[in-house]
Every structure is written in C-alpha cells, then in structure tokens.
Amino acid sequence: MKYRSSDNLKGTDSAFCRSLYKSMGYTDEELTDRPVIGIANSWSTLVPGHFNLKQVSEFVKKGIYRGGGTAVEFGVISACDGIANGHEGMKYILPSREIICNSIEIEVQAHRLDAIVLLASCDKIVPGMLMAAARLNIPAILVNGGPMMGGVEFDGRKTDATSVDEAVGMLHGGKITEEQVLSLENVACPSCGSCAFYGTANTMVCITESIGMSLTGSALIPATYSERLRAAYMSGIKICELAKKEIKARDIMTEEAIRNGIKITMATCGSTNAVLHLSAIAHEAGLNMNVVEEFEKLNKVTPQIAKVNPASKWDMEDFYKAGGIPRVMKNLGDRINTQVLTCTGKKLGENLEEFKFLFPENPEIIKTAEAPFNNTGGLAVLRGNLAPDTGITKPGAFDPSLYQFRGKAKVYNSEEDANKSILAGEVKDGDVVVIRYEGPKGGPGMREMYKAMKYLYGMGLNLTTALITDGRFSGTNNGCFIGHISPEAAEGGPIAIIEDGDMIKIDVTEGRLDIELSDEEIERRLKHLKIPEKEVPNGYLRMYAKSASSADKGAVII
Predict the structure, then answer these.
(1) Cα-Cα-Cα-Cα dihedral of 53, 77, 249, 113, to 10°?
(2) Is the pLDDT of residue 477 over 80?
(3) Which of 24, 216, 242, 312 has a CA-to-CA distance to 470 between 20 and 30 Å?
(4) Contact 304, 198 (CB under 8 A)
(5) What DSSP line would sit under 316-358, residue for residue?
(6) Strand pairing report for 115-119 and 36-41
(7) Which of 46, 48, 268 is CA-nearest to residue 145?
(8) DSSP readout, 376-393?
(9) Which of 214, 474, 486, 550 is the catalytic position?
C-alpha cells in the first residue's frame, strides 16, 4: 500500500531520508513496509493533566506496533490554565491554541507522516490538536491522560484546585483562617490528571469522544486507573486501522458530529469555552456552519441530563463511574446522530451497542431525557444592546433565582483591578461587575475571569451579584456570569460605554443582555468613545492582537 511517507521513504532515491531515520535505530521494515504514525505528545512536568502522558505514550506505541505501524514521537507545547490564571500569563493561554495547531501541522507536513495520535488532556491543548487534525485531514485519534482524583471534603464536596481559591475568598470574608487555607492546598489535588471538576479540559475531552475522535468511553477514565493505559494501547491499534482504511479526520469531524458535540455540551452543562473551540474546529474542518447559532438552536431542544461540579458536588471520577459520555449519549436517545463515523472505523451507534458499563447507574449524576435536570441545555446564548453579536452563559451551573438579574454596574478595565476590588470588599449585593478590555484583541488573549468568580463565591456574593465580560470563564465557574461579549470593548462594542451606576439587565430565560439606556444615549456614548491605549509587548501577543477574530468567530487567527 502506498502511504504519504512512501514519497520520501521508499525507493533508491529515498536513501538519504532513510539513512537519517536509521541514525536513530529504525529498520528497513519500519520505514518501508508500515505506515509512519506520529505521536504528538504534550507531556511536561508543568501541567498536572499531562504529567502521565509519557507513560500513556508508551502504551500507544505498543498499540501502534501491534497494529502494524511505526511510531515516531515529537513534543508539543502545553500551558496550565490553573498556573497561568489571574496574572499576565493567562493572556498567552488561548493564543497558545494556535501555536499548538500550527506546530503539529509543521511536524506532520515536514515529515510526511501518514497518521497522528494526539496526546493531551487540558484546556487549549485538546482543541488545538483537534484543529490540527481537521486542518491536515489525515487519520487521527486523540488520547487524553484522564482526570485527577478528588481531594478531602471541603464546603460540601470533594476538593479540587478551585477549592483553594474559594478558600482564599472565604479567608478575606473572615470565614476561615489562613492556617486552614494553607492546609487545604496540600490535600486538594491528590494525584496528577486534568482537574477533577467539569471545566474546559474535561469538557473538551468529552466533546472529543462524542464527535468520534477518541474511543467511546475513554474520555473520563481517571489518570490513575489502569484502564487509561489499555485505552491508549487500543488507540494505537485503531490508528493503524484508520491509516490502512484511509479514514481521515474530516470523514469523522462532520457537521453532524459537531452537532453531537454541542448536544453533549448542553446535556452535561459543559464549559462555555466549548463555543470558542468548536467554532475554531469547524473553521479548520472547512465546515459551513455557524456554531454559535447551532448552540442557540440546540439549547432549546437538548435537555440537561447530567450535573457535575461546578453544577453539583460530584466530580469526574463520579461522572465516569455513572457511565460518562456513553451513558449520556444513550440517555439522549435519537437526539444523538448515531450514524456518524468514528475513529474505531465504525459508526457511533455500533460503538454504543458494544460498550459495556463497568459500574451501576447513578441518577443523581445522569438522568434520563424524560426526567432531566432542566428541559433546556446547560449553556445559553444571550443577545441584546450590550451583546449585539453574542454573549455566552452557563445557566445549568447556577441557581435559577439568577436567571433574571438587574443591578448597578461596577466597571473595571482589567481583571486585576476587579480582583483587588472584590477582595477589598468594594463589590456589594446587587452589583453587576463589568470587566472589559479582556477580549481576544483587547486583552490581548481573552483571559478567563476565573478568580473573580471564585472570590465572589468565597465572599458570599455568588447569589447576589453578576459578572459580565468580553473575556471568558473557566468551566468551573458558577454564579451569574456572561462572557464572550461581542463586539469586545477594544473593537468599540457597547460594553465599552458602560459607566459605574448604569443599570444592567440580564434575562437568561429570554436570552437577553441589556443596558437600560435609550438608543440615543447609547449612540451618543459610542460616538464619543475613546478606547484606552494598552501597551502590548513585542512578540506573539502583539501578532495575535492584530489578527485574532472576535469571540463569536472562535477567536482564531485570520
């Protein structure tokens, strides 16, 4: 069979290339008789979710050789959202997605690899890798490292990394002591793995499974379970089958598959960042679909049937044992398109029929579509005179009493200013915290307003305040928040004209976000708007700021 790699590895004229491979110990059989399968490994000792990927990679290699392929491995950058949060480093997190995508494209194309196994677990790394697969359109499978275990019980649930920030807010609110905070940090994260809550990292691996780009049932296997290694081994075998059958990424990542991913996000109350990432993946796959509009439409017909932290006390291990994404897909019934092709070479319906659940059902975590937690999806799209293009919120993770909220604006032009003000006790009941100039261009980099929401929670303000921003949020946030507001402030969007004391009205049920000003006053303020200059250092951020699309288009470089 002729593979892509045959062009530079077969025949006498390819002796030079083979000699370079042979300098590393490869044999003639490995180079000329087998597909050359790349392993894009984002392992590092910086990112807890990727700490075990070196071991996972070894089992992928075993599977590749068992399947008749030759494994070649290369490194990919990864950055930890948690470590980068709340400071300048977060500006680099979303833009890193494009670097990840581009670097994989370069390695695959430069070396004419036949197929790719993508190893990642965390926030921007998983979507960046899926974007690369879609762009390259070669056989591809993603293998994640699995979520970490939950820690000791604190504030009514097992702890995770976010519990520590909530504790910091409680400390500033006079509810706990400094000693309690410092003690908690030692036990909140007891193992490596992607964070134990249903944030963007775990949302994206669940989406990956639901669109058929990873093995059915593999997304939520905890990092410390031996089943995680068996899934890696089987993925190595399957990628060889895909290469031999010439099943490519775009054969799997179709419009119907993306819709399945949106429905799973809705049904499980996944991260709002899923809107950004699925928009970017659809863009790279060349799909002619408006992902934001699909979220808006599918919200109304997809019930929320799963609740996991931050929407409940249950963590990722609990979600896995309850049946995970296979259980959710089965319970959604004919809402899921089971005729789509997957990375097993089979249709999704066949995978689900063959799947064997290892643990009993838990209806406190996963319900049926006939008796859901909510009749509509966990994410919602808002529009209005403050969000002409879009705003994204996550009603499935906060109290229904906040679905309608009206309050006075308290305006900040940066995340840091807002965080200081919250911890200083300057935000009061009834306030709507406005954090702007944090969009893709304005940030630049569209930082997460994660700490602001955690501090509001810790200060006891999560049920009496709201937060709106042209930035975005971590998937672990709860409370009334609206992010991705487009157009962003740096592009002259209406969020830029809000003044302290203006009345902001949020209506999640009606899908509205408005400022209570006349059209004439809005027009007057926009006419006289002066966007503050922000110094952006030379380097990648400056380039990203100049070329990034708006949030409703996925914040991709165009």
Answers:
(1) -90
(2) no
(3) 312
(4) no
(5) HHHHHHTTHHHHHHHHHGGGS-TTSB-TTSSBHHHHHHH----
(6) parallel
(7) 48
(8) S-S-EEEEETTEEEEEEE
(9) 474
One-character DSSP codes across 358-422: -S---TTTB--TTS-SBSS-S-EEEEETTEEEEEEE-GGGS-GGGSEEEEEEEEESSHHHHHHHH
Cβ-contact 221, 173 below 8 angstroms: no
Structure tokens at 387: 């969000």
Give 380-553's CATH code, choosing from 3.40.50.1820, 2.40.50.140, 3.40.50.620, 3.50.30.80: 3.50.30.80
CA distance 44 to 340: 34
Q: Does residue 475 surpass a pLDDT of 80?
A: no
Q: What is the largest CA-CA distance in the chain?
A: 76
CATH topology of domain 34-149+191-354: Rossmann fold (3.40.50)
Could you tell me how many residues make up the chain? 558
Sequence-separated (6 or more) residues with CB below 8 Å from residue 248: 137, 138, 139, 140, 242
In this prediction, residue 162 has a pLDDT band, given cuts at 50, 70 and 90, of confident
Q: How far apart are CA 541 and CA 538, in angstroms?
A: 7
Identify the sign of the CA torsion 435, 439, 444, 450.
positive
CATH 3.40.50.2300 residue spans of the chain: 34-149+191-354
Q: What is the torsion angle, in degrees rounded to the nearest 10, for the CA atoms of residue 206, residue 210, residue 212 and residue 214?
A: 20
- Across 524-532, average pLDDT: 95
pTM of the model: 0.94
CA pair distance 357, 204, nearest whole angstrom: 22
First-residue to last-residue Cα distance in the chain: 37
Which two structure tokens, joined as six digits, stand for 433? Answer: 């915290």
Residues 258-287: tens digit of each pLDDT: 999 999 999 999 999 999 999 999 999 999
Q: What is the dihedral of CA 512, 516, 517, 518, to 10 degrees?
A: 70
d(CA 396, CA 267): 9
Is 421 assigned a catalytic role? no
Place of tokens 């679905």: 403
User: Which residues of the chain are in CATH 3.50.30.80 domains?
Assistant: 380-553
